[in-house]
Amino acid sequence: MTKTVTFMTRNFNKYDVMSIDEYIAIGGFTALKRAITMDGEDIAREIAACQVKGRGGAAYDMGKKWSQARSEKNPEKVIVCNADEGEPCTFKDRTLIQNDPFNLLEGMIIAGYTMKAQNGYIYMREEYSHLRPILLNAIKQANEKGYLGKNILGVEGFDYQIHLYSGAGAYVCGEGTALVESIEGKAGRPRMKPPYIKQCGLYNLPTCVQNVESLSLVAGILNNGDTYKSYGPADCLGTKLVSVAGNVNRPGVYEIPFGMTVREIIYDLAGGVQGDRDIRLIQFGGASGKIAPASVLDTPYTYDDLKGAGVGVGSGAILVVDERTSVIDFLTTTQQFFSHESCGQCAPCREGNLHIKLLLQKVKAGTHTASDVKLLKQIAETMMITSLCGLGQAAQSALLAAMKHFPQTFEVK
């Protein structure tokens, strides 16, 4: 059986998550103590050397992002941890918060030092309200021990505080600008860009938004960057948390080295398909991700290999759908989600989701025409190009992939 690795998950079940002393006893905050002896640009370079891409779905070079955030001239800056995790089938960030909250805080504090920020904000999805006590306790104890507050660890002028905010259950608030609007007390709707969030974000300050998993990598990389780089192929170093769900025997979160095949993830780690049934399709990266048939199974799990196979890493979700579910049933269910979650601010997404929902109902009923199929594709492509934010731009990823891989679904009888 292919084994998982324990780089990000190295501290799981090794300390009481309500005790900062136990975290310190297993080496907690040693990365922060090293970081404060370094120049912030050198920290960004170490992250860049590990080829870390943001784990929220956009896959932007993390070291480059930190360097750009550091270069902003405004004396006040903000770090935001995106713990909204509203992407269906994605639950890796929840696992990190549950099992290693102090490691997340350590990564946020190092980010604050690197980018010369004064405040960090954790924006957590409303459905994770049961995790609030864990994070509030971690913040409180970090303040008491001098890892937050003024002149942290004796560094003059290193003043940094972390705040916890909860969302109200809106999927669109996973988008960076909608997230900061929500923290400011406004309706969670995306902003027009430019200006970009790195220049004018939360409270009009330069803002760096990072995913929970991204920040949870920081301490490990500063302590053991060579170990991280020992995993994965040369063009895709490191490890990744994947959330595997759907019709598998062992759904869950697994830390894998990049380069493991999709087949190994599904059959060795997740225990294979329930009842040994055939796979109908696999969706990568959550509801906004593309789908592929079982022919993708032997593809290595790397950014470039998955892209070459027509899918992507996205949020790290892998949804396995077996032969009991038809392609059209899968698409109509997914479309109901996006029709409900669209904020309605821009016409392409608001109207596009509505009309695609109606057209898919016709396809399911078998009453569609060739013109309907053509219109489906036109609307989906228009949404991808013209929608204001990532929700509308990616909402029809599964539909467009289905039209490519499963054309029989749309055949006119």
In short:
By secondary structure, the chain is of the alpha/beta class. Helices cover 42% and strands 12% of the residues. The chain has helices at residues 20-25, 30-35, 40-49, 62-71, 92-99, 101-115, 132-144, 176-183, 212-229, 262-269, 303-308, 327-341, 347-365, 370-386, 390-394, 397-405; strands spanning 78-83, 119-124, 161-166, 207-211, 239-246, 252-257, 279-284, 291-292, 317-322.
Notable traits:
413 residues, alpha/beta, Rossmann fold, Ubiquitin-like (UB roll), de novo design (two linked rop proteins), 3 domains, five-stranded mixed sheet, four-stranded parallel sheet, 42% helix
Give the full name of the CATH homologous superfamily of the largest domain: NADH-ubiquinone oxidoreductase 51kDa subunit
CATH architecture annotation name of the largest domain? 3-Layer(aba) Sandwich
The biggest beta sheet is recorded as: 5 strands, mixed
CATH topology of the largest domain: Rossmann fold
The CATH C-level name of the largest domain is Alpha Beta
Plain-language structure description:
42% of the residues lie in helices and 12% in strands. It starts with 19 loop residues before the first helix and ends in an 8-residue tail after the last helix. By secondary structure, the protein is an alpha/beta fold. The protein folds into 3 domains: 209 residues, NADH-ubiquinone oxidoreductase 51kDa subunit (Rossmann fold), CATH 3.40.50; 92 residues, Ubiquitin-like (UB roll) (Roll), CATH 3.10.20.600; 84 residues, Up-down Bundle (de novo design (two linked rop proteins)), CATH 1.20.1440.230. The strands form 2 sheets. It has a 5-stranded mixed β-sheet with strand order 6-5-9-7-8. A 4-stranded parallel β-sheet has the order 3-2-1-4, sandwiched between helices. A hairpin with a 5-residue loop joins strand 5 and strand 6.
